[in-house]
Amino acid sequence: MTESDDELFASLENEEADTSYRDHRIQQLNAEFASSKTNRSTKTNNTNSTSTTTYPSLSGDQSVLDFTTRSTRCIVHFAHSDFARCDVMDARLSELATRHFEVSFARVDVQSTPFLVEKLGIRVLPCVIGFKDGVGMARVVGFEGLGAGGSDGGENFSVKVLEKRNDDDDDDWD
């Protein structure tokens, strides 16, 4: 080792004694990191606050169970992607979800929830179940009872009919 190396090591050792600048810089970087993380999560939440927030698609039995127990009142549409009638019901429920923020709405593919499909006895699609505190309180099977052609299998029922059905079932929910 040369003399200049010894001088360099000595100067580095003296720098370590003065750690206040280093500590201050670490705190500053941590604050910047936390701030950027908060900004990122805020942007993500803003991005997701479209229709997916008002009418999200759930995946799996556990996510449906979590959703129904977390929400006081919720409506879950059990659907299949290959069924045109499920798409019709999706459109009506999506519109209904934008009108009723007091009720949580969600959609789930029956293929990803075999346990719940069996447990709830879902045999006809679309199947819409209204839950209160995790317990199924009301059910729409197919388009049954939706009037305006709903009872005879037509797809031309209005959102108002579905909304009225929801309001009529409110007595069961109290």
How would you sum up this structure, described in words?
This protein has 174 residues and is an alpha/beta fold. The chain has 2 domains: 3-48, no CATH class; 51-173, 3-Layer(aba) Sandwich (Glutaredoxin), CATH 3.40.30. Helices cover 55% and strands 16% of the residues. The protein contains 8 helices and 5 strands; from the N terminus they run αααβαβαβαββαα. It has helices at residues 3-17, 20-48, 51-54, 61-70, 84-99, 114-120, 159-168, 170-173, and strands at 57-58, 73-79, 104-109, 127-132, 135-141. It has a 5-stranded mixed sheet with strand order 1-3-2-4-5. The chain is rod-shaped and about 95 Å long. Mean pLDDT is 79; it is low at 41-51.
Name the features.
single chain, 174 residues, alpha/beta, Glutaredoxin, five-stranded mixed beta sheet, 8 helices, 5 strands, rod-shaped
Condensed summary:
The protein is of the alpha/beta class. Helix content is 55%, strand content 16%. It has two domains: 46 residues, no CATH class; 123 residues, Glutaredoxin (3-Layer(aba) Sandwich), CATH 3.40.30.
Largest sheet: 5 strands, mixed
- Structural class by secondary-structure content: alpha/beta
CATH architectural name of the largest domain: 3-Layer(aba) Sandwich
Question: What oligomeric state do the depicted chains represent?
Answer: single chain
Stretches where pLDDT is under 50 for at least 5 consecutive residues are: 41-51
Protein name: Thioredoxin-like protein
Organism: Penicillium argentinense
Biased composition (Low complexity): 35-54
Biased composition (Acidic residues): 1-18
